[in-house]
Amino acid sequence: MAAPVSQPPVAARASSRFLPRGLGAVSESSPASLRFSVSRRRRAARLEVKAAGNVFGNYFQVATYGESHGGGVGCVISGCPPRIPLTEADMQMELDRRRPGQSRITTPRKETDTCKILSGTHEGLTTGTPIHVFVPNTDQRGGDYSEMSKAYRPSHADATYDFKYGVRAVQGGGRSSARETIGRVAAGALAKKILKLKSGVEILAFVSKVHQVVLPEDAVDYETVTMEQIESNIVRCPNPEYAEKMIAAIDKVRVRGDSIGGVVTCIARNVPRGLGSPVFDKLEAELAKAMLSLPASKGFEIGSGFAGTDFTGSEHNDEFYMDEAGNVRTRTNRSGGVQGGISNGEIIYFNVAFKPTATIGKKQNTVSREHEDVELLARGRHDPCVVPRAVPMVESMAALVLMNQLMAHIAQCEMFPLNLALQEPVGSASSVSELAPNLS
User: Fold this and answer.
1) Dist CA 438 CA 440 (whole Å)
2) Rounded Cα gap, residues 216 and 252, in angstroms
3) Which residues, including other chains, have CB under 8 Å from residue 60's CB and lie 6 or more apart?
4) Residue 16 pLDDT more than 80?
5) Which of 97-101, 136-140, 396-400 has the lowest mean pLDDT?
6) Burial (CB count within 10 angstroms: exposed 0-12, middle 13-18, buried 19+), residue 337
């Protein structure tokens, strides 16, 4: 009589239904990293869970690290081409635009945000190896967060971090703090420089709305607006008249301990045709993901956006024509420079909406970590409106997207000779040599 076949415990049999085909039940002696026995094979397969949500990009890859009140923040950039001229000053200029304490309408926290490049360069040139950028935190005030260690700030990440991890860094919001974006801006500065060198790409963002103060679309010429115009005032709106109205709106809520939101508009000029891919990796989809990953962002629209639903097809379509240089162009640009998920050579423009800052100096009803109804009066130093400092963040994320798409396009579509009747190269060696002799 045959011996009876042993069966795994009921719990193990049930759990095995949810494993990939070929994987058995979890062993009782399995470590925390989860070791599964594999049926039909003699060797054990080990499944590892990667730390999610801290790395952006596939080719020009950026991993950010650090928290608001930790020892510091920064990034590691992988995939940067070698022999690109790079110094800390290149990154510092952009970090200075992002740093706190710039003016009365930003958080009063005083940080110089001085960056240090710890690896990946030699004698002022990138080496092609990972670039490590570090910025120390120097103005922490952990005591300001004693109340927030016990109660959840409404509309903040406090509660959801607890729901997900069961633990959180309370001071400054920890990883959910906008100080995390320092790494993005440092990496974005490098991406912007490479895009300019290779293809002449220019990326500019500005504040187009603060609360109910809306900059008319025809008030800014996307072809000619400059960084100097944008940086000429503390709210970063290129129109002086509307800039004053925006500043007044922020001042009005600031003195009351409240906050307001707004919109940042971003434009990218001289973007090569052909960036982006069909279906899941459309250029506008990549831009949307990048922008909605920013703290406090709540909305994204490109080209005509939601307003495009008010048009008929005949009104909305961008008609093609041949310009004097023999290039295919569009007479209008309601597509926002992207069609079918691929850049068409026109100016890319989009809007990013940011909510009012969640941490405010007004008493609010909330719930404690012990699940009791309580009132919270938050302390700390916070922006009454995030959009003035969000401008360089939006530019940086746009640069990281375009940098990844540029590298992907060159790898796939310029490996072999182009069909010059339909295609054009994204940049020429001669133009790069003129801009950066070290690259030749």
Assistant:
1) 6
2) 22
3) 77, 78, 79, 80, 191, 400, 403, 404, 407
4) no
5) 136-140
6) buried
Bridge partners of 75, per DSSP, are 64, 133
Report the predicted TM-score, pTM, of the whole model to 2 decimal places: 0.84
Q: CB-side exposure of 171: number of CA atoms within 13 Å?
A: 13
Say whether 227 sits in a helix, a strand or coil. helix
pLDDT, average across residues 355-375: 91
> What is the Cα–Cα distance from 170 to 396, expressed in whole angstroms?
27
> For the chain, give me the number of helices (H) and strands (E)?
10, 21
Q: How far apart are CA 76 and CA 72, in angstroms?
A: 13
> How many C-alpha atoms does 437 have within 13 Å on its Cβ side?
0
Residue ranges of domains in the chain, CATH in brackets: 55-414 (3.60.150.10)
Task: Enumerate the H helices of 114-263 as residue ranges.
Answer: 158-165, 181-199, 227-230, 240-254
Rounded CA-CA distance 407/416 in Å is 15
The tokens of 1 are what?
A: 């009589």
Q: What's the maximum distance between 2 C-alpha atoms anywhere in the chain?
A: 95
The tokens of 362 are what?
């007004």
